[in-house]
Amino acid sequence: THFGYQEVASDKKAEMVADVFHSVASKYDLMNDVMSFGVHRYWKRFTIECAAARPGMKVLDLAGGTGDLTAKFSHLVGETGEVVLADINDSMLKVGRAKLQDNGVVGNVNYVQANAEALPFPDNHFDIITIAFGLRNVTDKAKALHSMQRVLKPGGKLLVLEFSKPQNELMQKAYDFYSFKIIPNMGAMIAGDKESYLYLSESIRMHPDQETLKNMMLEAGFDQADYVNMTNGVVALHRGYKF
Ligand code: SAM
């Protein structure tokens, strides 16, 4: 591939992902709206509905970036609850924290720079964990899923929102064209960075499909796992339960 993505060593991949998100942080929200025609807001709203957060709950928004989910959870868990926005990238965390503070989302949100593969939290700590459009950037996904399973409370659930495999061929073709011909050029025009957006499109193609990710969640120790396709499988919401 363009980046030699399959062949790069894992430390190289981590470095590349870091460069991508340092580069796109300031334009990230704008690009999300433009590239998904605003539909990412619907995908995230559905994720929040499935999470069913209640006052007093502890929520981890992993790979939380600019904090769209964190902002919604902060309102839902209230003063007695807690939301941790964790991300490996300090540029994304800074943009996220500034945005949430400007919007008055304060008091029950903490920001932690952390790698999903080695979460710095106690066992059985969170009622809900979300990772939205983050897992595909993680080098060792099995290790990250284990780590999430460990810090989730019994009775809690993990929600993985991620690009997935479109369910019919026509959609797959249209989507490939859009990802590889249109998105990198939009990235060049709006964010001045074609390479980063090409990486993002490639990482989507490389990401495990619905059934593979479901099995990876079960292998990581979740007691039950399922998924819901959205937009014909362009995106899927995976749910993992710990009993
Ligand atoms: N969740 C946000 C959203 O849906 O808008 C941000 C998604 S953004 C596409 C992916 C995020 O994953 C970036 O902020 C990136 O820094 C973060 N990330 C990548 N690898 C990570 C890792 N190993 N651990 C934690 N966060 C990671």
From TrEMBL:
Q: Which residues bind S-adenosyl-L-methionine?
A: T66, D87, N115, A116
Task: Name the domain of life this protein comes from.
Answer: Bacteria
Which is an annotated GO molecular function term of this record?
methyltransferase activity
Keywords assigned: Menaquinone biosynthesis, Methyltransferase, S-adenosyl-L-methionine, Transferase, Ubiquinone biosynthesis
Name the chemical reaction catalysed here.
a 2-methoxy-6-(all-trans-polyprenyl)benzene-1,4-diol + S-adenosyl-L-methionine = a 5-methoxy-2-methyl-3-(all-trans-polyprenyl)benzene-1,4-diol + S-adenosyl-L-homocysteine + H(+); a 2-demethylmenaquinol + S-adenosyl-L-methionine = a menaquinol + S-adenosyl-L-homocysteine + H(+)
Pathway assigned to this chain's UniProt record = Cofactor biosynthesis; ubiquinone biosynthesis; Quinol/quinone metabolism; menaquinone biosynthesis; menaquinol from 1,4-dihydroxy-2-naphthoate: step 2/2
Entry-linked PROSITE patterns:
SAM_MT_UBIE (PS51608), UBIE_1 (PS01183), UBIE_2 (PS01184)
Q: Which Pfam families match?
A: Ubie_methyltran
Among its keywords, does the record have S-adenosyl-L-methionine?
yes
One biological process GO term for this chain?
A: methylation
Identify the EC number(s): 2.1.1.163, 2.1.1.201
- Into which EC class is this enzyme placed? transferase
InterPro entries from the UniProt entry: SAM-dependent_MTases_sf, UbiE/COQ5_MeTrFase, UbiE/COQ5_MeTrFase_CS
Q: Please give the function described in this protein's UniProt entry.
A: Methyltransferase required for the conversion of demethylmenaquinol (DMKH2) to menaquinol (MKH2) and the conversion of 2-polyprenyl-6-methoxy-1,4-benzoquinol (DDMQH2) to 2-polyprenyl-3-methyl-6-methoxy-1,4-benzoquinol (DMQH2).
Q: Which PANTHER family match?
A: 2-METHOXY-6-POLYPRENYL-1,4-BENZOQUINOL METHYLASE, MITOCHONDRIAL, METHYLTRANSFERASE
Family membership, please give it: Belongs to the class I-like SAM-binding methyltransferase superfamily. MenG/UbiE family.
* HAMAP family documented for this protein: MenG_UbiE_methyltr
What's the protein name?
Answer: Ubiquinone/menaquinone biosynthesis C-methyltransferase UbiE
Give the source species: Ferrimonas gelatinilytica
